[in-house]
Structures are given as structure tokens and as C-alpha cells.
Amino acid sequence: MFSFKVFLAAVLIVCMLTGLSNTPFLKVSALDEGGRDYNGVKVAYIPIDNRPVNLDRVKYLASSVGIELLMPEEDLFRTALDNMTPNSNGTTYGDRQALVDWLESVEEDCDYFVLSLDQLLSGGLVTSRWFSNTDLTLEYEIADYIISLSERKTVILFDTIMRLASTVNYQGYQITEYNQLRAYGSQPRTALTGSSLTVENIIAGYRYGENGEIITTVLDDSKIEKYLASRARKLRLIDYILDNTLEDIDFCYIGVDDSSNGINIQTNEINYIRSKIGTRGACFAATDELGLMGITRVVSLIYGGTDVKVTYYGGAEDNLADMYDFETLRTNVTTHINTLNCSISQDAELQVLVFTNGNHQTAASQLVAQAKSNLQNQIPTIIIDPTHGSGNFSLEKALIQSDIELLMLLSYSNWNTAGNAMGIALANGIGRYLYLKNSPSVTQESHEGFIKAMTFSYLKDISYKLYKFPISNPNASGTGSYKQLLGKINSSRLIAGLSPYATTSHGGVSCSDYRYPWNRDFEMTFDINVSETWDNIYKPGDVTGDGKINVTDYILIRLHILGITQIEGQALAAADVAQNGKIDALDYIAVRLHILGITLIEW
User: What is the DSSP letter of 279?
Assistant: First the structure.
């Protein structure tokens, strides 16, 4: 980096001589005002299980916002489906007591805790749907530790309302049982209200329809007994936690797992928990994004929340989000945002663009055009596609075919359910925004974490899930391929700061070891390698990337400012010598002074 003090002095001289009035907007460190640099703040994280969405994505997010994420060994929270090797203790689920022991070992070192109750009380999401024991001695002992921890530390909890169906490929259950149990759970039950809305009344009503009749099913009674006992166990445990933590916990996320529209077996559970949790938590359609939400909730506690502008494209924002939700798309987006200590405002700097199941082609074109305009005007932008790539992937096609630099967006997702997609995108995007806006220093490690988070979303959400490119041939070509998206990623800059706005290039991304950690194609992951972010051929002033600063670089910057030619891709970061987020007279003056030997741009 060149000497900025010398550069500014020289610019002032040149400005006086030439009549230029441009002055750079310099960043003032919060440390100068007695603030704290929160880079490296420690967060203890217990995931719901070891799937990539709860493990890899959370690691990348934490890194992108300057958090040091502390986690136990994967063997302690791993789930093993049928025909998979058990954990070292011989079980197919997390080691609950070992996890508590680990928490006790890191408690003094940690500032914040983001904890999955499904993992700590049941060994993971899958077994939270399977365990049906009525002796809850161990569970209550663990709950008591969590309760006491919340009195001493900042604790964010996340849990789920048991989904309508079972887990495929666990304990012999297959898609037949999944469909049968989902159909059984979807049948309407009597809606309880007022003093009748109690845990025991909810459990007593599980077997009965809205008119008091026993609900019939093709399932044998033993499977129904186990299913209902698992629901009862889970409801009693969250009731105990809420009874004893609401005065001390920061927040409790309750995700409604795999739901449906209309009154069903979950409805009374939802209403009961909502009546109890008040403002200390939220109960909404969500599950696999909740670990990410918890991490960004920590970021919002550190830096404060922000206003967010949300714009919908397609006209279907007031329809049901998807078949797994029980509220509208707008309601679920708003809830996700509010739980991150953020509010919706039309005047906000941060913009969220949401694709909906409406006029796909027109909506996709409009959304991408707005995103492009936002980036040109230095407006931080998040894109969400909660439609599962509907309209023949019209949004993704428009995004890929545009000249938008993919890493200039703060986040993107279309993964799995509508709730998952919005939670992944909002947690990553809002977290990164708060960090870039407020942190007195933005680290290279955070840039690398951000690049990994975005690369994972683009390749898994688009190349793998939508376009179904096989992991056996990651070098295949074509629209939406890993190769195509990596090419766009590797020619993209990223936002490096927001106070003031600044961008940077990176040294390149490569991916390897595409694999299935759960032996099923839904859970694909891969390794991401980011070359040294600052170790790039494009250095400040070297627009051509030839390793030197000469008159060609000066001319290119002048022509760009005049609109005769356009500097694109990573070369833009090299042209922004003053690092003020734009290409202007300050930049070509700096290059000119360097060429004349008056000041030196140092690398």
C-alpha cells in the first residue's frame, strides 16, 4: 500500500495548482473514540447436527464477521443415519454429557453462546424426532446447566417444533413412513385457546380430530404411539426451558420444522410457545438456518442492528411462502429480519431483493436490473430466491448472464425451503453488513470467510441443487456449472468496507473434494481454497496487472472516468488507488505523481 499521508499532501498541492476540489473521505477508527475492536470475539457454538448447512456455512459466516468460533469435536454432535458408522461412543447421535463437559471447559474463555437444544437434549435434530423416553432425568439435568449458564453468560438458544413427518433412512423408516406420518400430522386438531391451551391438553388432543373423532391412519399403532410420545417429550422439554430461562437468555429461536398450511398437530404447540415466549424469542417456519441466525444475532448484539429495505419481485409476497410454511412469505421474511435486531424501512441503506412465485421472467429481469443499479451506486445488496428456482431458474439465469460481479453482493441463497433460503441469505448478508459498517478494522481472514460463504452458496445452491451438475465431474461446462460460476467468482471484486465504501480484489478460488458427508445426495459439501486475498496480480495503480505502474495505467483510469472505456473485474480495485470506493481524479493524480517520482505507491 502506498504512503497515504504523503499522497494526500501531494494531492492537496496538485488540487491548489489545478483547481480540483475533490477530497478523500477518510475512515475514522472506532478505537480512536474509545471503542473496542471485536475481531476475534469468541462464540461457543453447539450445532443441531453435522450437516454442511449447520457446520460449513456457519464456520464461513463466523469468519466473515470476525468471530472466532469455538466448537467441540464433530464426533460429539454427529448424526449417523442407517448404514453409517456409529460415533466413537457407539451411538448414532450426539454425546449429550460430553457436550456439557465441553461447554464447561470453554465457559471462561467465551463471550457468547449459540446452542442447539435439539443437540444438547436429544443428540441432534433426527433423534429429537425419535426419542420417546418419559424419564427425563438426564434431560432436565442438562437443561438446568443451560439455565445456569444463561444467568452468567450471553446465551442464544435455538430449538424446533417437531415436524409433521419422520426422518428417512433412520431406524428403518423410509419415504413411505415419511409420507404416512406427514399425512397423519397434517390432519386438523381441535384448536385450543385461553386457559385450555396447556401442555397436557395439547398432548391429550394429539390423537383426535377437530370434531373429537379419533384420526384414522394406515400406520400401525406402535408407530403412532412412538410418534406422539416423541412430540410430547419434545414439548415438555421446551416448556421446562422457557419456564426457567426467559428472564436471562438473550433470545430463543423456535423453528417450526417441515410444516404445512392450515390447522394441524403443530398448531396448538405453536400457539402455546408463542404465548409463552413473548419478546424473548420467536416461533416461525425455520430449522436449518437457525445456527446461522444465532451467529448474526451475536453480531447485532455487538454492533447494534440496522434498518433494512425489502423489495419483492413477482407479486406473490403475500402468498404462502411454500408447502412447508404456515405463514406468508412477507411475514416470514419480516420475522427473520426482526429477530436479528433489525427493522424494515424504505429509507435503509441495506437492501434485500426477494424473488417470488409470480411473473418469473419479468420479475427476474427487474430484480437483476435493480441489483446492478444498486452495486453501481454502492448500495449493499442481498438477494433471496425462496421459490426453489421456479420459473425454470429464471432468476439464476438472469443473474449468471448479467455482468454483476457475484462477490459484490453481500449474500445470496435459494437453498431448500423458503425459510432456509431467507435465513441463510439474511444471516450472511446482515452479519457481513454490520461488520463492514461498524468494525474499526476489517481483516483479511474475514474477506476469505466471506468469499467461502458466497462460493458455497453459488456452487451448492445453483450448480448442484438447481442445475444438478454431478460432483463426479466438477470441470463440466455449461450454464450454471461449477466451472462457469467459479470463473465469475474469480473475476469479481468484493466489498471491503462501508465506512467509507471500498472494494478489493482477491487471489482466486478453487474447490476440491466434493463429497456426501451423510451418504445422501441432499447433503453435498466440498473444500474451498482462497489464495491470499491481498496477494493478487492487481496492485494499487497497476490496472493492467503487468507488475508495474506506467502511463498505460494512467491513461486507462482517465479513459474510464471520461466514459470512453470501462475498467472491469478485479482491475477496478487496482484503479481505486485512493480506496474511496470510486474511480475519480484522485486516482489518476496518484498514478501520475508516482510516475513522476513525486510520491510513491508502495506494494
Answer: G
Distances (CA, A) of 284 to 78, 178, 373: 26, 22, 33
> At which residue does the C-alpha cell 462464540 appear?
43
Closest CA to 383 of 348, 417, 349, 422: 422
- Whether 22 has a pLDDT exceeding 50, the answer reads no
Outline which parts of the chain fall under CATH 3.40.50.
Answer: 40-296
Residue 216 CB burial class (10 angstroms; 0-12, 13-18, ≥19) = exposed
Is the pLDDT at 96 greater than 50? The verdict is yes
Give the pairing of strands 509-515 and 525-530: antiparallel
DSSP 478: S
Sheet holding 411-413, edge to edge: 343-344, 307-313, 350-355, 381-384, 411-413
Per-residue pLDDT tens digits for 235-268? 999 999 999 998 899 999 999 988 888 899 999 9
- Supply 17's cell numbers: 495548482
* DSSP assignments along 554-600, one per residue: HHHHHHHHHTSS---TTHHHHH-TT-SSS-SHHHHHHHHHHHHTSS-
C-alpha cell at 197: 391451551
Burial 567-576 (b: 16+ CB within 10 A, else e): bebbbbbbbb
Task: Report the candidate in 499, 497, 462, 500 with the shortest Cα–Cα distance to residue 481.
Answer: 462
Helix (H, G, I), strand (E, B) or coil at 171: coil
Q: Give me the residue label for grid cell 428456482.
A: 389
Question: CA-CA distance, 357 to 394, in Å (whole number)?
Answer: 11
Model confidence pLDDT, tens digit, residues 106-131: 999 998 999 999 999 999 999 999 99
For the entire predicted model, the pTM comes to: 0.86
Q: How far apart are CA 35 and CA 472, in angstroms?
A: 50
3-class SS at 241? helix
Contact criterion met (CB below 8 Å) for 395 and 353: no
Cα separation, 375 vs 377, whole angstroms? 5
Average pLDDT of every residue of the chain: 91
Return residue ranges of the chain for CATH 1.10.1330.10. 4-22+540-596
Task: List strand residue ranges (DSSP E) for 59-128, in order.
Answer: 67-70, 112-116
The model's confidence at residue 18, banded by pLDDT at 50, 70 and 90, is: very low
d(CA 169, CA 520): 10
Do the bridges between strand 501-504 and strand 494-498 make them parallel or antiparallel, or are there none, so unpaired? antiparallel
CATH code assigned to 4-22+540-596? 1.10.1330.10
Please tell me whether residue 214 adopts helix, strand or coil conformation: strand
360 sits in the region (left: phi over 0; alpha: psi -120 to 50; else beta) called: alpha
**Residue 376 Cα distances to 363, 373, 380, 404, 411, angstroms:** 20, 5, 10, 9, 17
C-alpha to C-alpha distance for 467 and 556, rounded to whole angstroms: 38
Rounded CA-CA distance 99/119 in Å is 9
CA R_g for the chain:
26
- The answer to whether the CB of 160 falls within 8 A of the CB of 125 is yes
**8 A C-beta contact, residue 199 and residue 236:** yes
- Indicate the SS3 state at residue 389: coil
Class of domain 40-296: alpha beta
pLDDT for 541 = 86
pLDDT in the model for residue 231: 98
